[in-house]
Structure formats: C-alpha cells, structure tokens
Design goal:
Blueprint: H1 3-17, E1 21-23, E2 35-37, H2 39-58, E3 63-65, E4 71-72, H3 74-79, H4 82-85, E5 87-89, E6 95-97, E7 101-104, E8 111-115, H5 120-124, H6 127-134, E9 140-149, E10 164-174, H7 179-196, E11 204-208, E12 220-228, E13 231-242, H8 244-253, E14 259-260, E15 267-268, E16 271-278, H9 279-290, E17 291-296, E18 299-304, E19 315-319, H10 325-341, E20 345-347, H11 353-362, E21 367-371, H12 373-378, E22 380-385, E23 391-395, H13 399-408
Parallel strand pairs: 3-9, 19-20, 19-21
Antiparallel strand pairs: 1-2, 4-8, 5-6, 7-8, 9-10, 10-16, 11-12, 12-13, 13-16, 14-15, 17-18, 21-22, 22-23
Helix pairs in contact: 2-9
The structure holds glycyl-adenosine-5'-phosphate (GAP).
Glycyl-adenosine-5'-phosphate binds near residues 161, 165, 169 and 280.
Keywords: Aminoacyl-tRNA synthetase, ATP-binding, Cytoplasm, Ligase, Nucleotide-binding, Protein biosynthesis
Protein name: Glycine--tRNA ligase
Organism: Candidatus Adlerbacteria bacterium RIFCSPLOWO2_01_FULL_54_21b
Length: about 400
C-alpha cells in the first residue's frame, strides 16, 4: 500500500474509532454517498461553520444571512439551467441529471420537486426580499449554510464526494464594472478563511478553470484545489456568475430583480461573485492538515494539530486518580465552572493520565488540565500543551481566563 493510501486509511479509521464520522445507516450495510457525523465530528462541523460566519458575516457589515427551504418551486431549477444542464455523462454515453427528484403532495395533485443541488438557488430567489427588507447598498452579499443533494454517479473518497452535502455559499452582488476588483478581494478572503480553520497553505493550489470547462453560469472560475491523500482535488470554488441568475429568474418569474441606484435612480441587474465551500471537503482538508505523527517522550504518537478555533474539544479535565473522592470532587467542581465559560470541555477519568493524554492528542484537544494532590493544598492545576507536551501550573481561580488567552493565541 502506498504511503498516501495508508494515511487516508488511518484518518478514516481514526474518524470512526473516535467518533468523528460514521458510515451512514451502517447497521443496514450503509447507503452509498452518505455519512453521519459523530459527537466530535458534529462539533468540528459547527466550529468550521462558526468560523465561516465569523469571517464572512460577523467581521464585516455587508453580508445578510438567510436560511431558505430545501424544497423549492421546480421553476427555480428550470430557470437556473439545472433541469436541462445539471448532468454527468454515463458510461453508456447518455447524460444523467444528478438532481434528486421527489414529489410533493398526494395522489393526482402530487408535483415533482427537486432537492436543491446548490444552496445558491435559495439566495437568488430571496434577493428581492432582502433588498426590500434592508435596502442594502451595493456591493452586498447574501450568505447561507445548508444541505444540498446530488445524485453523484460514483460517490467516493470518504466524505469527498457525497450525495448529501452541505454548502457554505455567498452570492455577492456588485456593480458590473467592479466585478474584477471584487473577485480579487474574495480570492484573498477564500485563502484567509482556509488559514483561519488550519488548512495547510502549502497544500492549496489555484486552478483557473478554462473556457468550456466552467459551469454554464460562469464567466470566470477559480477552483481552489487541495492535496488530499488521494490526489489534488477541488476543495472550493470562486465564480463570477455575471447577471445570469438574477436575469434568468426575473424572466421566468416575471418579477423584477433589479437594483435601483439610490443616487441616480437608475435600475440595473447586479452581477454576482460567488465563493462556494463544501463543508465535507473543508472538514476533510482540516483533518488532513491536522493529522500529525511524531515522537514525544520516546513514544510515537498520532495527534490532530487542530487550530483551537476548530478543535471539537478545547480542553479536557482529569482528576489524577479516579478512586480518590477528594480529587474527583475538586475536579468536578473545576470542570463544572469551566464548562460555563467554555462549553466544548470534556471530562476524562479513564485509565492512567498518560493514556488520557494520548487519547486527547488523538482527537486534537489543545489542553489537558489535571487536578492532583497539590490542587487540594494551593488551588493550582497543571495545564498540558498538546503540541509540546509541556505542562505549567496555574491558579484554578484564573483557569478560565488563562485558557481563553491560550486558545486565542
Ligand atoms: N453554487 C456553486 C456550486 O454549487 P460547485 O463547484 O458545484 O458550485 C461548490 O460546488 C462546492 O460544493 C465544491 O467546491 C465542493 O466543496 C462542494 N461539493 C460539490 N459537490 C460535492 C459532492 N458531491 N460532495 C461533496 N462536496 C461537494
């Protein structure tokens, strides 16, 4: 087995063993292209999403959050070109539309509807609503995180190509003449976000998608590729969608989807820059970037070098010995207090302290806090750093402040 295959196998096995990712419907033999996040995976997903919102919504003033329905009027997907064009070639030469179909309503009234293949559709149909509610000035964006579905012919490579996925998308509306400048700004933003969640910079490569290979709506696309263990593949994309979508939805719905310049009163259709991330691929790139094997204290160890912002568990709290009630009670007290300030905290009293450190390293917990006999005397605890294995003694009274400070740096 080649080295890269071994790494992938180890990551998949760690994900299952430690509760990050399980095969979907596993006890029934699974369902191809579906995966379930376990307790730690679900935390990691939420942390990635929170970083995304922080970077692209809370740290700026021009993005509006929405949460649109997955089932939409089928007219949306006819106008967007997905009904006629969202297809992959089959080996037999026929084109296969990868939108999932279902029906809404009963009996003769049942209508064919689609599970959305991208979250962008929900954003475009709410353009007018957001403009009417908030009167934003151009440029501004609408962002959404949500599930999307694609009946991929060959789902593969763990969570890389799945049938039920989640996207983090922004449609950023700009004046037609400023698209190139805004495209460059978003290009930098995409890199900054990847750095924020700990995706290894050296493994990210931009690919300018050539004419004839872009999606039907795009005049320029950059694929941001990542060196996954199974090859260099698309992690996320940045597209210039022109006024394709708003114009198409305006024509099909007969509802005007224009922007009126508040200074000149001139109406025009905004153009769109779209940064689009898949949660699964971001999750996998974060995992691959964090996966580290080294030797510590003469022993080989595997650990996930997560950035604190995405680590599913920020700190674990241990009583040195679990059969000493005075230590357990004190540790419980400290754990309960800490959890009020930092919810992603874990209690661990299983096995000896060395084993607990290894377990926490393997799930990427940045800090382990041990309550020992000295704690009972002077109210200090040890904090052990995941990456260096070094420990320092700090006051239990300042623990929350110390931890926050460490987690931020
Ligand atoms: N709204 C634009 C759009 O959907 P896309 O390149 O088709 O563009 C955007 O998808 C991102 O969604 C991809 O870069 C990838 O991260 C993710 N994605 C797409 N299909 C996927 C699949 N089958 N499994 C996992 N992620 C997928």
């Amino acid at each position: 087995m080649a080295d890269h295959e071994r790494v992938m196998e180890k990551i998949v096995s760690l994900c299952k063993r430690r509760g990050f990712v399980y095969q979907g419907s596993e006890i029934y033999g699974g369902l191809a292209g579906t995966w379930d996040y376990g307790p730690l995976g679900a935390e990691l997903v939420d942390n990635i999403k929170n970083c995304w919102w922080k970077k692209f919504l809370y740290d700026r003033e021009d993005i509006y959050k929405i949460n649109a329905a997955i089932l939409m009027n089928p007219g949306v997907w006819e106008a967007s070109g997905h009904v006629s064009g969202f297809a992959d070639p089959l080996a037999s030469g026929k084109l296969f539309n990868t939108m999932f179909k279902t029906s809404a309503g009963a009996g003769e009234d049942a209508a064919t509807v689609y599970l959305r293949p991208e979250t962008a559709g929900g954003i475009f149909v709410n353009f007018k609503n957001v403009v009417d509610s908030f009167h934003p000035k151009l440029p501004f964006g609408i962002g959404q995180i949500g599930k999307a579905f694609r009946n991929e012919i060959a789902p593969r490579d763990f969570i890389f190509r799945v049938r039920e996925l989640e996207q983090m998308e922004i449609e950023y509306f700009v004046r037609p003449e400023e698209w190139e400048q805004k495209f460059e700004e978003w290009r930098r933003g995409v890199h900054e976000f990847m750095e924020m969640v700990g995706i290894a910079k050296k493994s990210v490569h931009e690919l300018e998608v050539l004419d004839g290979e872009r999606a039907h709506y795009s005049k320029r696309t950059i694929d941001f590729e990542f060196d996954f263990p199974f090859g260099r593949k698309e992690l996320c994309g940045l597209a210039y969608r022109t006024d394709f979508d708003l114009s198409a939805h305006e024509k099909a719905s007969t509802v005007e989807l224009k922007y009126q310049d508040p200074d000149t009163n001139k109406k025009f259709t905004p153009h769109v820059i779209e940064p689009s991330f898949g949660v699964e691929r971001t999750f996998l790139a974060v995992l691959v970037s964090a996966y580290t094997e080294d030797t510590l204290g003469g022993e080989t160890r595997v650990y996930l070098k997560f950035k604190p912002s995405v680590a599913p568990i920020k700190a674990a709290v241990f009583p040195l010995l679990k059969n000493k009630p005075e230590l357990v009670n004190k540790a419980r007290e400290i754990y309960t207090e800490l959890k009020k300030d930092i919810p992603q905290i874990m209690w661990d009293d299983n096995g000896n302290v060395g084993k607990r450190y290894r377990r926490q390293d393997e799930i990427g917990t940045p800090y382990c806090i041990t309550i020992d006999f000295q704690t009972l005397e002077d109210n200090t605890v040890t904090i052990r750093d995941r990456d260096t294995g070094e420990q320092e003694r700090v006051s239990a009274a300042d623990l929350s402040t110390t931890l926050w400070k460490n987690l931020k740096t």
